[in-house]
Design a protein that fits this description.
Elements: H1 2-10, E1 18-20, H2 24-39, H3 42-45, H4 51-56, E2 72-79, E3 84-91, E4 96-100, H5 108-131, H6 134-137, E5 159-162
Helix pairs in contact: 2-5
Length: 174
């Protein structure tokens, strides 16, 4: 992940604007969603001082790029239920989470664990983007021209798509 980020940031021939989160990002997202489900008021928990909002603004992670300056966010995720790492790439312009998982479909336990985490991201990221006034800062995004987000409020969950044709590994754990 480190080298991917450095390549995207510093290669003079690369026009892709990307940043990464650390492995704590998904823990913060899961933590706030679980707390919101317990008391039924996750809107109160979502604020600009939360770790997720600070990460979006680049106040939290050392050497992170603010999300307003990028088009993609790479989110590494460790699914403790499936004992496996996978990558989610958030395409900001298309409001879509792309899932890169070398074990996807190799068992219901793994697939359910992956989709549960991705759905939490899908729900929570838009709420934090609204809270941080992200779309007010990004005048270059036109939601009317995108198939995933046209006629949808910016606070609605993100679309999720599994990336096809990536290398797959054999699951020896189930």
């Amino acid at each position: 992940m480190y080298y991917l980020c450095k390549f995207c940031k510093y290669d003079p021939n690369n026009s892709v604007r990307v940043t990464t989160t650390d492995s704590f990002f998904i823990k913060w997202v899961v933590q706030i969603q679980n707390a919101g489900e317990e008391n039924g008021k996750e809107e109160r928990l979502i604020n600009i001082h939360h770790d997720v909002a600070q990460c979006i603004r680049s106040d939290k992670i050392f050497a992170n790029t603010p999300w307003v300056d990028v088009d993609y966010v790479c989110i590494p995720i460790n699914s403790s239920d499936a004992f496996h790492w996978f990558l989610v790439v958030f395409s900001i312009r298309s409001r879509c989470l792309y899932i890169y998982d070398s074990l996807y479909g190799f068992g219901t336990k793994h697939t359910k664990a992956v989709m549960s985490l991705v759905q939490k991201l899908s729900k929570m990221i838009p709420l934090f983007l609204v809270t941080t006034d992200y779309y007010g800062l990004r005048k270059d995004i036109d939601s009317n021209t995108n198939v995933y987000c046209s006629k949808k409020p910016v606070g609605d969950p993100l679309a999720c798509m599994k990336r096809e044709h990536i290398p797959q590994q054999v699951d020896d754990f189930e």
